[in-house]
Model the fold of this input.
Amino acid sequence: MGTLINHPAVAKLLTLLGPFVVVAVVVSTAYSLSQLTWQLSMPTPQKPPATGERGPEQLSASDTDRSQAATIAGWNLFGTEEVKEEVESPKVDMINAPQTRMRLKLEGVFVARNPDNSLALIANQGQAANVYTVGSSIPGGATLAGVFADRVVLQRDDAFETLRFPDSDEDIGLQETQTRSTPTSEPRRSSSRRERAEQSAPPQRELTDQDNLVQNIQRMTPESFMYTYAPVMESNPQAILDGAGLTPQSSSNGEPGGYAVGSNAPAELMEQIGLQQGDVIVSVNNHPVGDVQRDRQLVNQIIESGVARIEIRRGSRQFVVTYPLR
Done:
């Protein structure tokens, strides 16, 4: 081998090819290094999944869309639908409820815009009336189920019963068997009752005394009170207002704004008829009140109508209390 390299011709050939050999070695080395770098940067190939299985990288576009749709739906962008149980409404049963036979007397109702806030004044067997809210227990094992302008509905066990304003003291708690008097006979009967009340009434000074006023409100029916105090309301209405703790109010435009229940209103009076300090009597029989001199002219109209429908404002809500006068 050494003899061959030392041969003059071979030695001359190596001398001529030397630069080309160096270049070839450099190029070959560079190529090998580049291949090694590329292999190191590539991830290790994964074993293909078994037939019927798909890896995460094999999810189709439709799978991705469904997944995103389910995620967005779970955000409840438009809120959740409230599922309400259907409860059978008792309104039909309440409307057709028979007259109760309980020994109760309905003396007044407060009909609020929200039925759950309505009140009723009910007396038990000739005792003083108490204020009952919807859902509260009534003497005799009943519950006040509903309040309407002309009646209340009681519930005993699973049955509804109606308690109406009585025509007279004799038919309390009994079925209505007598027909009401015709409208033409009502004014005559009202006039005779008023005349008897005026003849038997004590002097006005005694009537307007606050203690006497409170006692009379507690012991008298609304009908008797109206007939007894009608002369005072016409001649000296301010005395009634002072005794009851009522103060005339004015609206923002200067018009009458009703009568406010003041701090000097007798507690017994407010408890008896369900008023609270700060309440405002807005109207009576749909006539706005607050002008003392003008309002006294309503007395006869109220008596002749046979009912006192009083609208009361309490804070931001208003309700109506109805008192029968016959």
The radius of gyration is 47 Å. Residues 84-90, 168-194, 196-202 have pLDDT under 50 and may be disordered.
